Amino acid sequence: MGTVAELVRRQWGDHRTGLRDEHTTLTHHQIAAGAAARAALLTELMPDRPGSEPHLGLLLDNTPEYPLWLGAAALAGAAVAGINPTRRGAELARDIRHTDCRILVTQRAHLPLLDGLPLPGLRILVTDTDAYQALLAPYAGAHPDDTFLRPVRPDSRLLLSFTSGSTGAPKAAVCSQGRLAAAGASLVSHFGVTRDDTHYICMPMFHGNAVIADWAPALAAGAGIALRARFSASRFLSDVRRYGATYFTYVGRAVQYLLATPETAVDHDHRLRLGFGTEAGAVDAARFEERFGVRLVEGYGSSEGGAAIRRTPGTPAGAIGRAAPGDDLAVVDQETGRECPPARFSPTGVLLNADEAVGELVNRGRSPFEGYWRNPEADAARLRGGWYWTGDLFYRDADGFLYFAGRTDDRLRVDSENLAAAMIEDILARWERVAGVAVYAIPDPVSGDQVMAALALRPGAVFEPGAFAAFLAAQGDLGTKMPPTYVRVVPELPLTATNKIHRVALRRAGLMCDDPIWWRPSRGAPYEPLPPP
């Protein structure tokens, strides 16, 4: 199928269950009908005018309205901007204005976020109100072929997905109908998704993880979806059992939350067969499979779509995979642009040449990157020298398998040696007392960086400096520059709205926080409490 609109139309006449949540059950046919009704309403409320964009914003939790409006936008030839409900004030208003939203679809719980914001000309629809139902009612008989704002083609803009904004205002990555449909079809083929599967969507739908890697393959395969309004570790297994879910997407911190829930004798009692996501780490992935009997597959991709890595048979432990067909991926030195040497490993798997092997992943071939909305400077930064620069650190072994080493922003330079935070985190995550780890740089008083780690402990565990030091000493792949100088013990790690660790907040706080911090004055010295600031 060339467009998402075609996939939505294909549901017409299919009376199998297609969508469920706590309050709603819809067939595939009802999903197509609901999308058609909203597309017809959209065409009436937002006629195509010269100089104006057919953009709508969705400020919603994962309710049925979210996929219904995605389908409506696809049918109508409109584009959806996923609005992050954790944004506030001027930043929230900026996101809505920046993406040229003419209509905002929201729910009563989020209305207070909009109070007093300068949003002239914006039409707001509140889904859980009688007024909304009355507005939608006249279009109940709409057909998916009835109306459209603009002709739908594979290159029609469909998504404006905001990046994290950790280094400035969030950028809105463009995703066309053709790219989203192709991404869904690719995952269907790769994971063998069938119409009998049910995809559990618990990651927020304003982010590409849920839409591109969960909703799109379900739509492409004709599979069902089950929604959780917001991620809940305590409700995860009961939801999975209730809906017969077979597939879900994750980010690393969500996996850590699930592992931190109390174990039961029926943790394997479900139909779930696969989780697909990023940054779980080899240790947590192994723990998850042992406890729940579910394989986690680490993937690599982004809302921008500039590069993709596929896991293939024979992928070594710890590796993500190889370049997807058509991609010319390379790991290069960020300053010189030269390709980094292959990684060399010890007999026990320790990376021996991290300083020279770790570099930024670039796509030197044709990139599916479709640009950022109204941000030519960001486009130029991504496409320097005709290559697509991912902003992520990797290393490649002699057989071409790629290993994730963190974000370029998470690189540390200790005693003139470059270190990747993700590699240190993977090692520290082995400590049995740890539920979550974040490693980041703080400035060294002389030059470069010092390693700081934030540790969230498992329930009932306590931080004992001697035990931690003994654990570090026992790790054969922990290089001499890797042990943290500072250890901050936190009740829980700070998260972004997409459940990723908020390293920017940790770096900003540095040593100025109320949490206990332990430090070692010199390498190999015992850890001791750092006096409060």
Characterise the protein shown here:
- The protein is an alpha/beta fold.
- The protein contains 15 helices and 26 strands.
- The chain has a seven-stranded mixed sheet with strand order 2-1-10-9-11-12-13, with helices on both faces. It has a six-stranded mixed sheet with strand order 6-5-3-4-7-8, with helices on both faces. It has a five-stranded mixed sheet with strand order 22-23-24-25-26, with helices on both faces.
- Helix 2 crosses helix 3.
Concise structural overview:
With 533 residues, the protein is an alpha/beta fold.
* Contiguous helical run count: 15
- Structural class, from secondary structure content? alpha/beta
pLDDT below 50 for ≥5 consecutive residues: which ranges? none
Mean model confidence by pLDDT: 92
Shape, per Cα inertia axes: globular
Q: Bin the strand percentage.
A: 15-25%
**Largest sheet, if any?**
7 strands, mixed
Q: What percent of the residues sit in helical stretches (DSSP H or I)?
A: 25-40%
Oligomerization category of the chains in this entry: single chain
DSSP summary, beta strand count: 26
Fold blueprint:
Elements: H1 4-9, E1 17-20, E2 25-27, H2 28-45, E3 55-59, H3 65-76, E4 79-82, H4 89-98, E5 101-106, E6 123-126, H5 130-136, E7 157-162, E8 172-176, H6 177-191, E9 198-201, H7 208-221, E10 224-227, H8 233-243, E11 247-251, H9 252-259, E12 274-278, H10 282-292, E13 295-298, E14 309-310, E15 322-323, E16 329-332, H11 354-357, E17 359-363, H12 376-382, E18 388-396, E19 402-407, E20 411-414, E21 417-420, H13 421-428, E22 434-443, E23 449-457, H14 465-473, E24 486-490, H15 503-509, E25 517-519, E26 528-529
Parallel strand pairs: 1-10, 3-4, 3-5, 4-7, 5-6, 9-10, 9-11, 11-12, 12-13, 23-24
Antiparallel strand pairs: 1-2, 7-8, 14-15, 16-17, 17-18, 18-19, 20-21, 22-23, 24-25, 25-26
